[in-house]
Amino acid sequence: MxxxxxxxxxxxxxRQLVACAVAGLVLLGSSPARAAEPIFIAPARTxxxxxxxAREQLETRLREVVRKSELELLEVSNELGRRAAACEDDxxxxxxxxxxxxxxLLVPEITLDDKDYRLSLTLYAANGAKTALLEETCSLCGLxxxxxxxxxxxxxxxxxxxxxxxxxxxxxxxxxxxxxIFVGNKLVGITPLELPLDPGIHMLRLELDGYIGLARKxxxxxxxxxxxxxxxxxxxxxxxSKIFMGVGWAALALGVGTAAGGATLMIxxxxxxxxxxxxxxxxxAGHCRWRYDTLEGGIGLAAGAAVLVATxxxxxxxxQRKRAHPSNSSRTARAIxxxxxWSGLSLRF
Length: 349
Known about the structure:
Number of strands: 15
Number of domains: 3
Number of helices: 8
Largest sheet: 6 strands, mixed
CATH class of the largest domain: Alpha Beta
Helix content: 40-55%
CATH topology of the largest domain: Rossmann fold
Strand content: 25-35%
Order of helices and strands: HEEHEHHEEEHEEEEEEEHHHEE
């Protein structure tokens, strides 16, 4: 008789748990692979006495290595590749990369000086900006060794592309906190803030009331996250004398202009309106019936001008005293008053 084993009834449940775990691992492992980034290679730029067969052999080896990587190598015309490599600015390169239907451009350069090979690969992103530069020198090398070295450089391009496609960000902090962050002329947030930015050079500016604004040129590297900590300096106290002087001169200038306008209106009062002085608008003596009635308006402007001039003079005096005696500025401001008098307005000190 077989003795009863208490754990035997639990075996089916254990089998189900194992099956579920295996299914989960299979689902995780079968997630869709990342799409290959399309790239095209421009014809190699060459310097030195490099024969055409040697150049073609080096280019072929580079293409083989890139084609075996996780990149999608696009075949484009040599003319398009040469135009892209000849571009001198990002905008031109971005246009050629878009025409090729690619996200990246690879420009090889091969220099042969006697038996020394200098090899470089420059990688450009879809926006035309340079993303990576790989360089190697092979002294006293043969063509086969140079081809192997170029292949090694090509094998590293896939990793550079992978880094370039990752999101770049900058964590911006300020002391004190709460500063406005501008990228270019666009307000993007308030510190502290983790800011996603495209690779390249950006102008970043911080502004906070009561503190001196701060600007920085920021170079963002593709696929990297960095932190920028900036300390803001308190703004110097404003000179009240400048405010009083500025407003005083403005009031004085406005008062003079208003006085001129008032004088013009008073001079025009009771003068004939010559534009409407004919026919029935003439009296028996041949004088115009219609005349300007501008005396009250002129007097009103003159009175307003007097107030403006008096205010401007008072503010200028206050500004001069504040400039000469900053510590007594508040007492000076209280001591000067504008009061009405029998002759109009007067300044009392």
